[in-house]
Every structure is written in C-alpha cells, then in structure tokens.
Amino acid sequence: MINPLYKLWLVLRSTLFWILFLPGILFCATLASFAFYAPLWIRIGIVRLWIAYSLISLRITCGLKYSVEGMENIPEDGFIVMSKHSSTWETIAIQKFFSPMVWVVKRELTWIPFFGWALKSMNAIALDRGTGRKAINQLIRESRKHMDEGRILMLFPEGTRVLPMQSKPFKLGGAIVAQRTGYAVLPVAHNAGEFWPRHSWIKWPGTIRVVIGPPIDPEGKKAEAIITEVGDWITRECDVISDKMQLKRIGVLPAADVE
Question: For the whole model, what pTM was predicted?
C-alpha cells in the first residue's frame, strides 16, 4: 500500500513535469515546423534540443533517470530500429541514441497542429494503415530511400503502447522492409512502462534500463522468421531487466510474487 502523502508528492512532481514539458514540445514543434525547408541538420538539432530539455526536466522534477547497454551493437550503416513500446518515454528518449532517425507513424498524427507539422518536417513516413498492400509498398519504398541516404528507420512493431506484463503480436511491416531492403534490424528492450505507465499521470522515480541488442541480419530469412527473432529477443530481454519491485508499486505484481 502506497503512503497517501508519498503518492501526493509523486502527483505534484509529475504535474510540475507537465508544466515544463508541454510548453517545451509546443516551442520545439513550432520551430521544427517553420524549419520545414531548412537543412536536415538544423531540423535534427531542434529535435535534439527538445529531447535534452525533456529528459533533463524529467530527471529534475520526477527523479526519473536511465541507463543504456549495448551501444557497441549499433551498426555504422543504415538500419531498422524495432523497440518495445510501453510508454511515452521511449518516443522521446530513443531519438537520443540513434540519429538521424526517421519515424513510421499513423497518418492521423500528421494532422495535429504543430506536432504533426514537425513530424512532416522530419520526413516521417505517414501511413494510412487501412490501405493494406498500398501502405506496405509505401513503407518499403520510402524506408529504402531514407536508409540509402543514411537515415535510421524507427518502428514500434507492437503498434501501440502495451502495459507491463502484457503483450501484443509484433506486426510484420518492419520485417518485410528488412527482407526487401536487406537492412539489418536492431532490437531494443527497455522497462520504461514500469516507471511511466500508459495513461498514468505519475512518473515514478528510478532508473529506466535500455538494452540495445545485436543486429539481426535479414539475409535468407522470411519476414515471419525475422519478426519472430525480434519479438523473442525483446520479450526475453524485457523480462530480464524488469524491475519486480517497481511492478509491485504500480500494482502489476502482487507483493507475494516479489522476492
């Protein structure tokens, strides 16, 4: 049982974070929108400014830090990042580890004023998922173009944020891109959802663990085999790095399951 005063303290700290975070995202999204025709390095610089500001704000207000393992696994050439998706945190922080990055997003996100315009400014691949084969062909075509130019493709194969201890099937899109383009997949596991859970106002203090896995070579593999390898690695690693005490605090694990 969480002490009510401690929970109030967490709520106040998280509120302060939002007070700092929301104007920051509006300011940087506006800058990125107006920089639509500026050189790519300027647009990337604006995004990196927003990332640094957001992570520092999170650390100061909520006491939420992070550690990264496996940086030596990052290839020098273009590649595809497939990450666990359990929190808002990774949509901010993951761009700090991989640059220059291009995102695959739902087309509807690009309609949001300023935020959506900033996504367009960063050349995000906006897909209408209801168009089936047409969307896959667009994904392959645009992904190949960006990676040939040295960009890093970013996907969340689960498609949506998933609560800790839950899972969703990994979608085939990114694996099809890897199969068709020959670019390697870099799997990323983390436990951010245990500290910044989906739909939670509270951001819990602690250290998020991020693990970057070895590249998965798609050569000679079918898309189904690629995504199975990615999903197995991420699921296994997420279980290894999971903070059982934190799962207890957020009510995912009963106290009896925590040693």
Answer: 0.90
